[in-house]
Amino acid sequence: MSHFSVLQKKKSKLVIGLISGTSADGIDAAVVRVKGSGPSTRVEQLAFRSYRYPRGFRELLLDNSLPGSGSVDLLCELNVLVAHFFADAAKKIARKAGMLLSSIDLIGSHGQTIHHLPVQKRSFRTLVRSTLQIGDPSTIAQLTGVVTVGDFRTADMAAGGQGAPLVPYFDYLLFRSKKKNRLLLNIGGIANVTALPKNCSIHDVMAFDTGPGNMIVDALMSRWYGKKFDRGGHTALRGDLLPELLLRLASHPYFGKHPPKSTGRELFGASFLPRLEKLARRSNRQDLLATATEFTAFTVFDQYHRFIASRMKPDEILVSGGGVHNRAMMEALRDYFRPVPVLRVESAGFSSDAKEAVCFAVLANETISEHPANIPGVTGARKPVILGKICL
């Protein structure tokens, strides 16, 4: 364990963060320099890039993420195959940063979520919550020669939490302000929000998944146009909003649930499309895209209004994730939150695309430092816990 002890004592580390989100379109990889740990953490982003999965692999992943469509032998294989892709991404991002892989101190890998079941269920007289992120971290450690921390969600779930969202701890470390109330919004496949009152402590942080991000729009684009996403929101901008459909979609029971709460593909993935199409009937496709895009912005504002507004009014909203590139979605958010400025997180010095990869680099540093990195008030866990598995 001598190497691990040396790593713990380093005041500055080079860390690679890796994640593939619920959209499953590839791996986001970042190299950062992390100084300190806990509330004194300082981060410098050195390199970032997204690496696409091989052609056809995304469809295979998504098919095996649905109940009844996967097989245990294929999931076993995918767990290791994804780890190989993650290890390759780590090697490539180190080269892009102009570094030898041997100079990297640590890798933090979120992995690829296959299924997430945050609601407690009784099974064989035992109450369980469960989640599965594939991309075995031990395999990544062996293929790269770098200490790897992965599988961050399960410790929180074992302590009674939902295992998500985990980004709010990172938001607290890097974006809290003594002078401003900040709302951090990440729009990936799922949208999640973190509320940081000015001069807040960790106990003041409010956060949860608001509902769908890009997931429904991406699924519609794939089904109707054979495209992975609505580039720039151009298709949605050509359509008209269907107000009645929007309100009926917003009647989904998830939006009435009080935090702590988290969601995923299980509620708002491809299985949601039949509900949308049934409600829409003969509606124009572009109008449906416009309404599905508005649905994300509407539910973000609705969830803020229901669960945050009485406790905090934001001075600014910082947005990250793929949703920042969708002009229709960003314009809708600005309309709902006006006059509060809705800004890309670049205004605070971070890349909106890189944020989640940087987050898991920081969470890996917290694990190595033996610091709890969940927020019980956010996830519903009984206590703070150290997250992740350390693979030497």
Overview of the structural elements:
There is one protein chain. The protein is of the alpha/beta class and 392 residues long. The protein folds into two domains: 2-164 and 353-391, ATPase, nucleotide binding domain (Nucleotidyltransferase, domain 5, 2-Layer Sandwich); 167-348, ATPase, nucleotide binding domain (Nucleotidyltransferase, domain 5, 2-Layer Sandwich), CATH 3.30.420. 38% of the residues lie in helices and 23% in strands. It contains 15 helices and twelve strands. Strands 1, 2, 3, 4, 5, 6 and 12 form a seven-stranded mixed β-sheet that branches. A five-stranded mixed β-sheet has the order 9-8-7-10-11, with helices on both faces. A hairpin with a 2-residue loop joins strand 4 (106-123) and strand 5 (126-134). Helix 3 crosses helix 4 (137-144), helix 6 (167-175) packs across helix 14 and helix 12 (285-307) packs parallel to helix 13. The longest helix has 25 residues, at 72-96. The relative contact order is 0.17.
List the helices and strands and how they pair.
Layout: H1 2-9, E1 12-20, E2 26-35, E3 42-52, H2 57-63, H3 72-96, E4 106-123, E5 126-134, H4 137-144, E6 148-150, H5 154-158, H6 167-175, E7 182-187, E8 190-196, E9 206-212, H7 215-225, H8 234-237, H9 243-249, H10 265-268, H11 273-280, H12 285-307, E10 316-320, H13 327-337, E11 342-344, H14 355-368, H15 376-379, E12 389-391
Parallel strand pairs: 1-4, 4-6, 7-10, 10-11
Antiparallel strand pairs: 1-2, 2-3, 4-5, 6-12, 7-8, 8-9
Helix pairs in contact: 3-4, 6-14, 7-12, 9-12, 12-13
